[in-house]
Amino acid sequence: MSMCPNINSLSMSREGQNALKEIRYKLKMGNMLQGFLAGGTLLNALLNDKALPTIFNVGTTDWLLLGKAIEGIPEISKNRVRLISGGMMLNTSGQEHEFWEAIYDLCMFSK
What we know:
By secondary structure, the chain is mostly helical. About 55% of the residues lie in helices and about 10% in strands.
């Protein structure tokens, strides 16, 4: 995937929400969530310890901010994010699959 998708009204499964919580933990361990400005609904939840939404939109700003957070974490944590998203990609379909595929492919780093 070369570009990050715009995903509207993504309905995240319970497993997906748990995976996002695990990714949030990995980002926090890398201290990469401090100092970020508010973004979209997903990023606000990841950055501010808010309850993760069950339905949200993911647009360009969300991908850019998530990319900045992931870019700064140690390689081992990046690999863990890819492992989590890869597992979710295999077990989801539709928009949720598209979301996890984008994270797995690290689309936010594509040129």
